[in-house]
């Protein structure tokens, strides 16, 4: 193996390692967590600023339409409830009691700021009855994030 | 009755494939021409059985025979006939049967086209193909059996409404299958070369052609998928790095890399093992893609079906991976190089860099796609990798590839003198600067968009110069070269159109009352009225679905699209919420990808003279 060949291989190895390191750090910075309201309260400080998909049920009686397209509601998994502030027009199916997944992050003032709202789009989905457990994980799985 | 007939055909197919595969491998080992003949017959037999089985299924669908499990699942007397015909691929079991049909046609076609050639490779190739066919026959016979007998019902639910909602959904799946399944053929050829321990110059032609055909279908299929998402899903984009979109892109990337390295192999006699590896990787990635699409492991628009075939596909993927790796490890040394690379600054050097970039892209996207799966399997935590990861990793590498489309063809084979290099780079760059300036004047400010325009103008110039070299004569003589440059020209346009459309769009959301209007940029949008055009975004309510499906409407022109999508209809307040988007250059993506497909076809169609000459030679040489 001559020297230029060796040089080329070393250069290639360095470049690939660099690329892998960049890829690794970019992945960890862009992870989106799928959490339930309970997960979020357990996560504590980790929930602030992280990109989170919060899954749960729209708590009955909690929807408040504000000025313009502002929208407030609570997402619950029966154990814990998280207050969500969202902007933008909600999808047609959005209503009380339906399963939703909101993407956004927790802010320090104690609510979830969402920039995307997805409704459980599964034909088999039905709103849980009163007292029935909400399987938020299953709900997230069955929600088709169209993006 | 119909169900039993279908089931019999599928069971026969499992037997025919398994036997044919073993006969093929045995004939390869013993170098037996009789064995090869017999393997060929089994290959045709598989195709016939698949055609018959598909015919039986279509008959059952059209006659609304609800005693057949699949018909009971997707059939309906309510839907139009064309929906009934295409519902063959609207759900899991039928689509696997359709996969079997396409595989049968591919195998029979490849067997027929090589009927008097490559006798030392063909037994192994047929053995490998029928090995894969055995697995898919087994899937149709067992885990995804469409011919289950069920108590006959008077009517069925009809296929998934999302699929009924748009014409593109009829053609996207067949193209995807033709692309995916077709990768089996070059995989068989590659394995045959390894098993035989030789990859001669004459065997390059079937390898390259069999890779090119599914590449064309896959290229179109990826575009159709994006187009469908754009026209139907209503969020205004065409690509979201959804795991299933990635699944279709991954084999395309490795196949594209292989098509390029095959050129170097042809010219210089090097990179044989590398090309074979890329071909095998393309096949394995189609199987991985099938696993992702069909097993319901991802939250995705495509997870229509959550089924039990996931584990079976995973086992097949593992087996095919082990087979490929072991074969490579044991035999790659036998594909010895006949030449060597002279200088990195040359045409072949650029081909190598191209391959490096394509492989980097493949790894980047693969890691981002399966990382969440690995984490969930490991500790049960659900997460996904966000879009910024893909964008930030793929954009720089993609831009570099665009630059290479310009550099590669501008450099000569072998060695390049400094003057040649400078001349080939400098002159076309002026056109790149011009295009970037035009873009800047038109309002492009995103740095990546400007770089893309710069490289795009540069690559377009080089491509055009290379294409017109040799005058009209080349149309007859260098058809492969011309085809390649048409593909390049299409690719350059796609790059530019993606950069412009993704960074320069305007959007607003409005609530409209009846007879009110709203304005976005130059368009006045009225809830009832007429100006440039009338768009009718709508919400369709299907009987089988609980919720309505929104369908956006798009007014496309060559420069920009106006896109309207209904978000919400509020009957109480008499308002409708509409999302409005103006996106420049979107239509160019569809047009340019079609152009890439056309370029592929131009490169693929053999020259008539050569075919005749070869046919003559084959008459002389006893096969």
3D architecture notes:
The complex is a heterodimer of chains A (147) and B (623). Chain A has 147 residues and is an alpha+beta fold. Chain A is 28% helix and 31% strand. Chain A has a five-stranded mixed beta barrel with strand order 2-4-5-7-6. Chain A starts with a helix and ends in a 5-residue tail after the last helix. Among the domains of chain B are: 1-159; 160-340, Four Helix Bundle (Hemerythrin (Met), subunit A); 503-588, no CATH class. Helix content of chain B is 66%, strand content 8%. Chain B has 21 helices and nine strands. Chain B has helices at residues 2-30, 33-62, 69-74, 81-86, 92-113, 122-141, 161-164, 168-182, 184-196, 204-233, 243-268, 272-294, 309-331, 347-379, 387-410, 418-441, 447-468, 473-477, 479-503, 586-604, 608-620, and strands at residues 383-385, 506-512, 517-520, 523-526, 538-540, 549-551, 553-556, 560-570, 575-584. In chain B, strand 8 and strand 9 form a beta hairpin. The longest helix of chain B is centred in the middle third of the chain and has 33 residues, at 347-379. The radius of gyration of chain B is 26 Å and the shape is globular. Mean pLDDT of chain B is 85; it is low at 299-305, 527-532 and 610-623. The chains are: A alpha+beta (147), B alpha+beta (623).
Key descriptive features of the protein:
heterodimer, A: 147 residues, alpha+beta, five-stranded mixed beta barrel, 31% strand, B: 623 residues, Four Helix Bundle (Hemerythrin (Met), subunit A), four-stranded antiparallel β-sheet, two-stranded antiparallel sheet, 21 helices, 8% strand
């Amino acid at each position: 193996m001559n020297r230029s060949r060796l040089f080329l291989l070393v250069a290639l190895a360095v470049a690939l390692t660099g690329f892998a390191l960049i890829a690794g750090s970019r992945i960890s910075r862009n992870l989106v967590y799928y959490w339930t309201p309970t997960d979020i309260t357990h996560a504590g400080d980790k929930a602030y600023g992280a990109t989170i998909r919060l899954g749960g049920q729209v708590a009955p009686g909690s929807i408040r339409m504000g000025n313009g397209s502002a929208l407030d509601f609570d997402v619950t998994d029966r154990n814990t409830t998280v207050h969500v502030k969202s902007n933008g027009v909600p999808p047609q199916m959005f209503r009380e009691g339906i399963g939703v997944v909101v993407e956004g992050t927790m802010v320090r003032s104690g609510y979830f700021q969402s920039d995307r709202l997805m409704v459980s789009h599964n034909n088999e989905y039905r709103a849980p009855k009163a007292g029935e457990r909400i399987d938020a994980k299953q709900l997230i799985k069955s929600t088709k994030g169209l993006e | 009755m119909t169900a039993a007939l279908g089931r019999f055909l599928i069971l026969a197919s499992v037997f025919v494939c398994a036997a044919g595969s073993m006969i093929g491998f045995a004939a390869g080992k013993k170098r037996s021409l009789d064995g090869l003949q017999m393997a060929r017959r089994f290959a045709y037999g598989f195709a016939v059985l698949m055609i018959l089985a598909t015919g039986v299924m279509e008959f059952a669908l059209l006659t609304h025979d609800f005693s057949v499990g699949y018909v009971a699942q997707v059939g309906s007397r309510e839907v139009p006939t064309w929906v009934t015909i295409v519902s063959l691929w609207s759900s899991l079991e039928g689509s696997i049967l359709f996969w079997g049909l396409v595989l049968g046609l591919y195998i029979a076609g490849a067997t027929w086209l090589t009927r008097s050639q490559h006798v030392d490779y063909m037994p192994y190739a047929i053995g490998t193909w029928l090995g894969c066919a055995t697995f898919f026959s087994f899937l149709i016979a067992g885990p995804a059996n469409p011919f289950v007998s069920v108590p006959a019902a008077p009517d069925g639910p009809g296929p998934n409404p999302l699929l009924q909602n748009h014409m593109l959904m009829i053609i996207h799946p067949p193209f995807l299958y033709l692309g995916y399944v077709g990768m089996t053929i070059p995989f068989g050829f590659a394995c045959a070369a390894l098993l035989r321990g030789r990859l001669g110059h004459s065997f390059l032609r079937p390898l390259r052609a069999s890779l090119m055909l599914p590449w064309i279908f896959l290229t179109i299929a990826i575009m159709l998928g994006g187009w469908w998402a754009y026209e139907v899903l209503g969020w205004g984009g065409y690509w979201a790095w959804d795991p299933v979109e990635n699944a279709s892109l991954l084999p395309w990337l490795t196949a594209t890399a292989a098509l390029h390295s095959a050129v170097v192999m042809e010219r210089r006699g090097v990179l044989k093992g590398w090309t074979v590896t890329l071909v095998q990787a393309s096949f394995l990635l189609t199987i991985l893609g099938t696993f992702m699409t069909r097993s319901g492991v991802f939250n995705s628009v495509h997870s229509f079906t959550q089924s039990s075939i996931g584990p079976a596909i995973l086992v097949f993927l593992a087996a095919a991976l082990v087979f490929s790796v072991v074969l490579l490890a044991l035999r790659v040394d036998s594909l010895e190089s006949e030449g060597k690379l002279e200088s990195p600054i040359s045409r072949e050097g650029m081909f190598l860099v191209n391959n490096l970039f394509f492989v980097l892209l493949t790894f980047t996207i693969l890691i981002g796609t399966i990382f969440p799966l690995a984490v969930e399997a490991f500790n049960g935590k659900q997460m996904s990798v966000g879009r910024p990861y893909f964008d930030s990793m793929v954009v720089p590498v993609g831009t570099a590839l665009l630059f290479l489309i310009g550099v590669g063809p501008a450099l000569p084979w072998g060695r390049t003198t400094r003057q040649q290099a400078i001349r080939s780079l400098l002159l076309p760059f002026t056109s790149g600067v011009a295009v970037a300036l035009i873009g800047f004047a038109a309002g492009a400010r995103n740095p990546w968009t400007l770089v893309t325009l710069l490289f795009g103008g540069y690559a377009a110039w080089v491509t055009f110069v290379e294409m017109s070299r040799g005058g009209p004569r080349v149309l007859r003589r260098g058809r492969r070269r011309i085809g390649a440059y048409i593909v390049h020209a299409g690719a350059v346009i796609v790059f530019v159109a993606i950069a412009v459309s993704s960074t320069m769009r305007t959007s607003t959301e409005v609530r409209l009352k009846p007879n009110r209007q709203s304005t976005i940029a130059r368009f006045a949008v009225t809830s009832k009225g007429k100006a440039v055009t009338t768009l009718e975004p709508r919400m369709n309510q299907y009987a089988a679905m609980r919720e309505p499906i929104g369908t956006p409407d798009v007014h496309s022109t060559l420069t920009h699209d106006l896109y309207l999508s209904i978000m919400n209809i509020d009957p109480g307040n008499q308002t409708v919420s509409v999302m409005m988007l103006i996106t420049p250059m979107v239509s160019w993506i569809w047009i340019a990808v079609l152009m890439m497909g056309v370029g592929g076809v131009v490169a693929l169609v053999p020259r008539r003279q050569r075919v005749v000459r070869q046919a003559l030679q084959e008459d002389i040489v006893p096969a």
